[in-house]
Amino acid sequence: MNHLDIELQGIDKEGKIKTYKLNNFKGNNLIVYFYPQDDTPVCTQEANDFKEALNELEKYVTIIGVSSNNLEDHIEFHNKHNLNFILFSDTENKLKHAFEEHDKYTQNIHRATFILDQNGNIIKYWVKVDIDGHIAKISEYLKNIFN
Questions:
Q1: Which residue ranges form the domains of the chain, and what is each CATH number?
Q2: From CA 139, how far away is CA 124, in angstroms rounded?
Q3: Which end of the chain has the least Cβ crowding within 10 Å, N or C?
Q4: What angle is formed at CA 41 by the lines to CA 33 and CA 136, rounded to 5 degrees?
Q5: What is the pLDDT of residues 55-105, one digit of tens each?
Q6: Residues 6+ positions from 93 with CB-CB distance below 8 Å
Q7: CA-to-CA distance for 5 and 45, rounded, in angstroms?
Q8: What whole-number distance in Å separates Cα of residue 39 and Cα of residue 8?
C-alpha cells in the first residue's frame, strides 16, 4: 500500500484525536519522523528538540511524529511535554512498513526521519538517527533546498 493512503488515528497540535492520511497534507512539505516509544529519555529529548525548533522548521514543513504507541499514550506524552506538532499512532506498523523500503541498512525503522515534498515524495531521509545535532542537520537541509 502507498504510504500516502494509509489511514491512522493521531492527535493534532492541540492534542485532539483525528484520523489522518498523509494524502491530507498534499501541498505541504512534511517531516515524518519515526521513534520507538513515548516518554522514554531519548524519544522525549527528540520530541522536545522538534518542539523547540518548530518555529524555524514550520517555515518549510509540517512535523509528524510516528510511533506504535496508542492514542492514550500519545495524549499523555503530548500533554506532559507540551508538544506542538502532530503525532500518529501506528499500532499495527502499517506506515512504518510502507517506509521500510527506504531503510536499506537495517530493514527495520527504529528511529528515522523522512522529508516529503508537496506531492508526498520522499526527498531526503536519515535512518539510525542519532538525535545529537539531528535537528541542525534537518534545518540546514531545509534551508538549502527551500531558500
A1: 8-146 (3.40.30.10)
A2: 12
A3: C
A4: 45
A5: 999 999 999 999 999 999 999 999 999 999 999 999 998 998 888 765 555
A6: 68
A7: 30
A8: 20
Per residue in 88-123, is it b (16+ CB within 10 Å) or e — as a string? bbbeebebbebbbeebeeeeebebbbbbbeeebeee
Q: The cell 540546514 sits on which residue?
A: 140
| Total-model pTM | 0.93
Cα separation of 13 and 133, whole Å? 24
User: Is 43 noted as a catalytic residue in this protein?
Assistant: yes
pLDDT digits (tens, 9 = 90+) for 110-143: 799 999 999 999 999 998 899 999 999 999 999 9
